[in-house]
Amino acid sequence: MIKDEKLTFVIPVYNEEDNIKIIYNEINKLNLKIEYNFFFIDDGSTDNSLNIIQELNEIDKRVNCISFSRNFGHQTAIYAGIENSKSDYVITMDCDLQHPTALIPNILKQKNNFDVIQMKKKSHGERNFIFRIFSNIFYLLINKISNLKLERNTSDFRLINKKVINNLKLFKERDKFIRGMIAWSGFDIMYIDYIPEKRQFGKAKYNFFKLNELAFFGILNFSTFPLRLSFYSGFFISILSFSYGLYAITKKLFSPDTSPIGYTDIIAILTFLGGLQLIFIGVVGLYISKIYEQIKDRPIYIKKKQI
């Protein structure tokens, strides 16, 4: 065993009472040659998850836990584990057993060669066709309109070293997008492909709307392109409107008997411009709402209990 180095498994938990002991036992079966501990982050579970973690703590002091006062979200839970970790390495993984524990020894073999060992899904697992389409659109968009380079199908199954841990603690934004934060930082990353396991117990916590919300936060956090798009669109439409105005005046001067623009045309133009204005006002509003949430400077999570 490597006694000079320590590893923490950061495992977010939200209503995973049937999976906690299984993932605990599966990791222990690996007989890892490094000193390690477990850091479960109870994200406001309403089932028996916290009690099970407490039972594990009573028999194994390597099991630690932060329990949130309510559900603050998966990304916040991961960040809380990283923020409170004191180890040389952190492996983040979900509690639903879809991240294969058998791959952990292979991950650890590369820990001295790269800052981040990022696991990358070979397939979308149990996600349906619509999820896959939106996932592909998200990666296409964020790579095109931001300064990030995100590999497709990356997950929150990864190892990070102390350098990455310390730098992630410097990020002050409220809405955490861990994948984007790591990619933005420019650390050396190695990608390892894996096939997600099937969930044995419980239900998936990321539904269609939560995944869309995560994708939206990712784009807003790392790109100002939507704001620039509103400016460019406004500029382009202004040129078109000015050109059409000159055309209408010229036509009126030299062809006064020509039929005027019809009522339907005017309504169509006005509703189109009105809709476009509302869309971009909404985009600006989203950025303003993020600024408003940020300047309130509230804690991103509240601890109910720490073990």
Give a written overview of the molecule:
By secondary structure, the protein is of the alpha/beta class. The chain folds into two domains: 2-223, Alpha-Beta Complex (Spore Coat Polysaccharide Biosynthesis Protein SpsA, Chain A); 225-295. The chain contains ten helices and eight strands. The chain has helices at residues 20-28, 49-59, 74-84, 104-109, 129-145, 162-168, 178-185, 208-222, 225-254, 263-295; strands at 2-13, 34-42, 63-68, 89-92, 116-121, 154-161, 189-194, 303-306. Strands 7-5-6-4-1-2-3-8 form an eight-stranded mixed sheet, sandwiched between helices. Helix 1 (20-28) links the parallel strand 1 and strand 2 (34-42). The two termini are 26 Å apart. The model has no long low-confidence stretch (mean pLDDT 83).
Features:
307 residues; alpha/beta; 8-stranded mixed sheet; 10 helices; 8 strands; 48% helix
Topology pattern, helix = H, strand = E: EHEHEHEHEHEHHEHHHE
Question: What's the β-strand tally?
Answer: 8
Strand content: 15-25%
Overall structural class, as computed from helix and strand content, comes to: alpha/beta
The low-pLDDT segments are none
Main beta-sheet strand count, sense and barrel state:
8 strands, mixed
Radius of gyration: 25 Å
- Supply the number of helical segments: 10
Estimate the global geometry from the Cα principal axes: elongated
Number of domains: 2
